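ARCHIVE CARD
Drawer: 12
Card no.: 0347
Subject: one protein chain, sequence and derived structure
Cross-reference: see card 0346
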Amino acid sequence: MNYRHQFHAGNFADVVKHYLLLRVLHALQRKDKGLLYLDTHAGRGTYDLARAAHGDTLERQPEWPAGIGRLWSAPNLPAGLQDYIGLVRTYDRQQGNLEAAPRFYPGSPRLVSGLLRPQDRMALCERQPDECQALRAALGRTPRCLIREEDGYQALRALLPPPERRALVLIDPPYESQREFDDIVNAVEAGLRRLPGGTFLIWYPLTLRARVDEFFDRLQTLELPPTAVAELAVAGEDSALKLRGCGLVVLNPPWQLADEITPVLGLLAGLLAQGTGADGSWRWLVPER
Protein backbone atom coordinates (compact mmCIF):
# COMPACT_ATOMS: atom_id res chain seq x y z
CA MET A 1 0.00 0.00 0.00
CA ASN A 2 1.19 3.53 -0.72
CA TYR A 3 -1.35 5.51 1.32
CA ARG A 4 0.17 8.41 3.22
CA HIS A 5 -2.14 10.13 5.68
CA GLN A 6 0.09 13.20 5.90
CA PHE A 7 -1.60 14.58 2.77
CA HIS A 8 -5.03 14.33 4.45
CA ALA A 9 -4.08 15.22 8.03
CA GLY A 10 -6.37 17.69 9.74
CA ASN A 11 -9.14 17.38 7.15
CA PHE A 12 -12.82 17.22 8.07
CA ALA A 13 -12.62 13.44 8.49
CA ASP A 14 -9.83 13.79 11.06
CA VAL A 15 -11.87 16.38 12.93
CA VAL A 16 -14.87 14.05 13.26
CA LYS A 17 -12.77 10.98 14.05
CA HIS A 18 -10.61 12.66 16.67
CA TYR A 19 -13.43 14.54 18.33
CA LEU A 20 -15.44 11.35 18.73
CA LEU A 21 -12.41 9.29 19.78
CA LEU A 22 -11.61 11.75 22.56
CA ARG A 23 -15.21 11.87 23.79
CA VAL A 24 -15.38 8.07 23.96
CA LEU A 25 -12.04 7.89 25.80
CA HIS A 26 -13.16 10.57 28.24
CA ALA A 27 -16.38 8.65 28.95
CA LEU A 28 -14.55 5.35 29.49
CA GLN A 29 -12.09 7.00 31.86
CA ARG A 30 -14.90 7.96 34.21
CA LYS A 31 -14.29 4.54 35.70
CA ASP A 32 -11.08 4.18 37.68
CA LYS A 33 -10.20 0.78 36.24
CA GLY A 34 -7.49 0.86 33.57
CA LEU A 35 -8.02 0.17 29.88
CA LEU A 36 -6.09 -0.71 26.75
CA TYR A 37 -6.21 1.65 23.77
CA LEU A 38 -5.54 -0.39 20.63
CA ASP A 39 -4.99 1.35 17.28
CA THR A 40 -4.93 -1.13 14.38
CA HIS A 41 -3.70 1.35 11.73
CA ALA A 42 -1.81 3.93 13.73
CA GLY A 43 0.11 5.79 11.00
CA ARG A 44 3.11 7.92 11.97
CA GLY A 45 1.53 9.67 14.93
CA THR A 46 2.38 13.23 13.94
CA TYR A 47 1.93 15.28 10.76
CA ASP A 48 3.46 18.44 9.35
CA LEU A 49 0.65 20.34 7.63
CA ALA A 50 3.19 22.35 5.62
CA ARG A 51 3.99 19.11 3.75
CA ALA A 52 0.31 18.51 2.98
CA ALA A 53 0.58 20.72 -0.10
CA HIS A 54 3.23 18.46 -1.61
CA GLY A 55 2.53 15.05 -3.04
CA ASP A 56 5.21 12.58 -3.97
CA THR A 57 5.94 14.51 -7.18
CA LEU A 58 3.26 17.19 -7.66
CA GLU A 59 1.83 20.13 -5.75
CA ARG A 60 -1.57 19.37 -4.27
CA GLN A 61 -4.38 21.24 -2.53
CA PRO A 62 -4.07 20.75 1.24
CA GLU A 63 -7.20 19.50 2.98
CA TRP A 64 -6.66 20.86 6.48
CA PRO A 65 -7.99 24.41 5.79
CA ALA A 66 -11.47 22.91 5.24
CA GLY A 67 -11.10 20.84 8.41
CA ILE A 68 -9.13 21.91 11.47
CA GLY A 69 -8.57 25.28 9.81
CA ARG A 70 -12.27 26.15 10.07
CA LEU A 71 -12.41 25.37 13.78
CA TRP A 72 -9.06 26.90 14.72
CA SER A 73 -10.48 30.27 15.73
CA ALA A 74 -14.20 29.49 15.71
CA PRO A 75 -16.00 31.08 18.69
CA ASN A 76 -18.48 29.51 21.11
CA LEU A 77 -17.72 25.88 20.39
CA PRO A 78 -19.18 23.19 22.70
CA ALA A 79 -16.90 22.06 25.50
CA GLY A 80 -15.97 18.75 23.84
CA LEU A 81 -14.87 20.49 20.65
CA GLN A 82 -12.95 23.07 22.68
CA ASP A 83 -11.11 20.24 24.44
CA TYR A 84 -10.13 18.72 21.09
CA ILE A 85 -8.99 22.03 19.60
CA GLY A 86 -7.09 22.79 22.80
CA LEU A 87 -5.14 19.54 22.58
CA VAL A 88 -4.24 20.22 18.94
CA ARG A 89 -3.19 23.80 19.75
CA THR A 90 -1.02 22.65 22.64
CA TYR A 91 0.70 20.05 20.49
CA ASP A 92 1.21 22.55 17.65
CA ARG A 93 2.94 24.96 20.03
CA GLN A 94 5.02 22.21 21.64
CA GLN A 95 6.37 21.35 18.19
CA GLY A 96 7.58 24.93 17.77
CA ASN A 97 4.92 26.61 15.66
CA LEU A 98 4.59 30.28 16.56
CA GLU A 99 2.38 31.27 13.61
CA ALA A 100 -1.35 31.99 13.84
CA ALA A 101 -2.29 29.11 11.54
CA PRO A 102 -1.79 25.46 12.57
CA ARG A 103 1.36 23.71 11.37
CA PHE A 104 1.68 20.42 13.28
CA TYR A 105 -1.24 18.04 13.69
CA PRO A 106 -1.30 15.07 16.10
CA GLY A 107 -2.58 11.72 14.90
CA SER A 108 -4.81 9.50 17.00
CA PRO A 109 -1.91 7.88 18.92
CA ARG A 110 -0.44 11.23 19.88
CA LEU A 111 -3.77 12.62 21.04
CA VAL A 112 -4.50 9.58 23.18
CA SER A 113 -0.97 9.29 24.60
CA GLY A 114 -1.31 12.58 26.43
CA LEU A 115 -4.49 11.40 28.14
CA LEU A 116 -3.36 8.01 29.41
CA ARG A 117 -3.63 7.52 33.15
CA PRO A 118 -1.06 5.44 35.06
CA GLN A 119 -3.46 2.48 34.93
CA ASP A 120 -3.96 2.72 31.15
CA ARG A 121 -1.89 1.27 28.27
CA MET A 122 -1.76 1.66 24.51
CA ALA A 123 -0.81 -0.67 21.66
CA LEU A 124 -0.13 0.84 18.24
CA CYS A 125 0.03 -1.23 15.06
CA GLU A 126 1.34 -0.05 11.69
CA ARG A 127 2.28 -2.43 8.88
CA GLN A 128 4.10 0.04 6.59
CA PRO A 129 7.79 -0.02 7.65
CA ASP A 130 8.58 3.65 7.06
CA GLU A 131 5.38 4.81 8.78
CA CYS A 132 6.08 2.50 11.72
CA GLN A 133 9.63 3.83 11.95
CA ALA A 134 8.26 7.38 12.15
CA LEU A 135 5.75 6.22 14.76
CA ARG A 136 8.54 4.77 16.88
CA ALA A 137 10.46 8.04 16.59
CA ALA A 138 7.40 10.00 17.69
CA LEU A 139 6.10 7.77 20.49
CA GLY A 140 8.72 5.11 21.17
CA ARG A 141 9.57 6.53 24.60
CA THR A 142 5.97 6.88 25.76
CA PRO A 143 5.37 4.95 28.99
CA ARG A 144 3.07 1.93 28.75
CA CYS A 145 3.09 2.06 24.95
CA LEU A 146 3.65 -0.98 22.72
CA ILE A 147 4.41 -0.38 19.01
CA ARG A 148 4.14 -3.30 16.59
CA GLU A 149 5.08 -3.36 12.92
CA GLU A 150 2.40 -5.72 11.71
CA ASP A 151 -1.09 -6.13 10.30
CA GLY A 152 -3.38 -4.52 12.83
CA TYR A 153 -6.16 -7.02 12.18
CA GLN A 154 -3.88 -9.86 13.25
CA ALA A 155 -2.63 -7.89 16.24
CA LEU A 156 -6.22 -7.35 17.34
CA ARG A 157 -6.60 -11.10 17.62
CA ALA A 158 -3.30 -11.38 19.51
CA LEU A 159 -3.83 -8.52 22.00
CA LEU A 160 -7.43 -9.13 23.05
CA PRO A 161 -8.54 -9.72 25.70
CA PRO A 162 -6.16 -7.48 27.66
CA PRO A 163 -5.44 -8.08 31.35
CA GLU A 164 -7.53 -5.01 32.18
CA ARG A 165 -10.59 -6.61 30.52
CA ARG A 166 -11.42 -3.15 29.15
CA ALA A 167 -10.40 -1.79 25.76
CA LEU A 168 -11.01 0.99 23.28
CA VAL A 169 -10.16 -0.24 19.79
CA LEU A 170 -9.82 2.16 16.85
CA ILE A 171 -10.02 0.53 13.40
CA ASP A 172 -9.07 3.19 10.84
CA PRO A 173 -7.65 1.52 7.71
CA PRO A 174 -6.70 3.27 4.44
CA TYR A 175 -9.44 1.54 2.39
CA GLU A 176 -7.13 0.78 -0.50
CA SER A 177 -8.02 -2.91 -0.54
CA GLN A 178 -11.26 -4.09 -2.14
CA ARG A 179 -11.53 -6.49 0.80
CA GLU A 180 -11.26 -3.85 3.50
CA PHE A 181 -14.87 -4.04 4.67
CA ASP A 182 -14.68 -7.85 4.75
CA ASP A 183 -11.46 -7.69 6.74
CA ILE A 184 -13.08 -5.31 9.22
CA VAL A 185 -16.11 -7.53 9.77
CA ASN A 186 -13.88 -10.55 10.31
CA ALA A 187 -11.70 -8.61 12.75
CA VAL A 188 -14.71 -7.29 14.67
CA GLU A 189 -16.15 -10.79 14.93
CA ALA A 190 -12.85 -12.04 16.36
CA GLY A 191 -12.55 -9.04 18.68
CA LEU A 192 -16.04 -9.42 20.10
CA ARG A 193 -15.47 -13.11 20.64
CA ARG A 194 -12.41 -12.24 22.76
CA LEU A 195 -13.82 -9.15 24.48
CA PRO A 196 -17.63 -8.84 24.14
CA GLY A 197 -17.73 -5.69 26.27
CA GLY A 198 -14.95 -3.86 24.41
CA THR A 199 -15.66 -0.52 22.75
CA PHE A 200 -14.79 -0.54 19.04
CA LEU A 201 -14.66 2.53 16.77
CA ILE A 202 -14.61 1.84 13.02
CA TRP A 203 -13.92 4.76 10.71
CA TYR A 204 -15.24 4.53 7.14
CA PRO A 205 -15.40 6.89 4.13
CA LEU A 206 -18.63 8.05 2.52
CA THR A 207 -18.03 7.52 -1.17
CA LEU A 208 -20.62 5.11 -2.53
CA ARG A 209 -23.62 4.79 -0.22
CA ALA A 210 -24.31 1.27 -1.47
CA ARG A 211 -20.93 -0.01 -0.27
CA VAL A 212 -21.46 1.43 3.21
CA ASP A 213 -24.98 -0.02 3.46
CA GLU A 214 -23.61 -3.40 2.40
CA PHE A 215 -20.96 -3.07 5.13
CA PHE A 216 -23.70 -2.40 7.70
CA ASP A 217 -25.62 -5.45 6.47
CA ARG A 218 -22.51 -7.58 6.90
CA LEU A 219 -21.92 -6.24 10.41
CA GLN A 220 -25.49 -7.03 11.38
CA THR A 221 -24.97 -10.70 10.58
CA LEU A 222 -22.77 -10.77 13.71
CA GLU A 223 -24.08 -10.98 17.25
CA LEU A 224 -23.57 -7.29 17.85
CA PRO A 225 -23.78 -5.50 21.18
CA PRO A 226 -25.44 -2.06 21.22
CA THR A 227 -24.03 -0.41 18.08
CA ALA A 228 -24.46 3.11 16.72
CA VAL A 229 -23.38 5.04 13.63
CA ALA A 230 -22.15 8.64 13.72
CA GLU A 231 -21.94 10.23 10.26
CA LEU A 232 -20.91 13.59 8.86
CA ALA A 233 -21.54 14.49 5.24
CA VAL A 234 -19.96 17.75 4.04
CA ALA A 235 -22.05 17.59 0.86
CA GLY A 236 -25.06 15.69 -0.47
CA GLU A 237 -25.07 12.45 -2.45
CA ASP A 238 -25.13 14.30 -5.79
CA SER A 239 -21.83 16.04 -4.96
CA ALA A 240 -18.81 15.61 -7.23
CA LEU A 241 -16.51 15.39 -4.21
CA LYS A 242 -14.46 12.19 -4.14
CA LEU A 243 -14.92 12.03 -0.37
CA ARG A 244 -18.17 13.68 0.61
CA GLY A 245 -18.24 12.50 4.19
CA CYS A 246 -17.28 9.86 6.70
CA GLY A 247 -18.64 7.97 9.63
CA LEU A 248 -17.75 5.93 12.66
CA VAL A 249 -19.44 2.76 13.79
CA VAL A 250 -19.40 2.62 17.59
CA LEU A 251 -19.81 -0.79 19.22
CA ASN A 252 -20.62 -0.68 22.94
CA PRO A 253 -20.75 3.13 23.10
CA PRO A 254 -20.45 4.61 26.58
CA TRP A 255 -23.70 5.49 28.31
CA GLN A 256 -25.27 8.82 27.25
CA LEU A 257 -22.71 9.37 24.48
CA ALA A 258 -25.52 9.89 21.93
CA ASP A 259 -26.92 12.82 23.91
CA GLU A 260 -23.57 14.62 23.76
CA ILE A 261 -22.56 13.74 20.21
CA THR A 262 -25.79 14.24 18.23
CA PRO A 263 -26.03 18.07 18.45
CA VAL A 264 -22.30 18.46 17.81
CA LEU A 265 -22.54 16.46 14.58
CA GLY A 266 -25.19 18.90 13.37
CA LEU A 267 -22.99 21.85 14.32
CA LEU A 268 -19.98 20.35 12.51
CA ALA A 269 -22.08 19.81 9.38
CA GLY A 270 -22.63 23.56 9.23
CA LEU A 271 -19.04 24.50 10.05
CA LEU A 272 -17.39 22.01 7.68
CA ALA A 273 -19.86 22.01 4.76
CA GLN A 274 -18.35 21.96 1.28
CA GLY A 275 -21.62 21.90 -0.66
CA THR A 276 -25.38 21.65 -0.30
CA GLY A 277 -26.81 18.73 1.59
CA ALA A 278 -24.27 18.69 4.43
CA ASP A 279 -25.61 16.77 7.40
CA GLY A 280 -24.60 15.16 10.68
CA SER A 281 -26.44 12.27 12.27
CA TRP A 282 -26.40 9.58 14.95
CA ARG A 283 -28.47 6.42 14.60
CA TRP A 284 -28.59 2.96 16.11
CA LEU A 285 -27.83 -0.22 14.19
CA VAL A 286 -28.52 -2.22 17.35
CA PRO A 287 -30.33 -0.17 20.02
CA GLU A 288 -29.29 -0.10 23.63
CA ARG A 289 -31.14 -2.69 25.66
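Annotation on reverse: The chain has one domain: 5-286. DSSP finds nine helices and ten strands in the chain.
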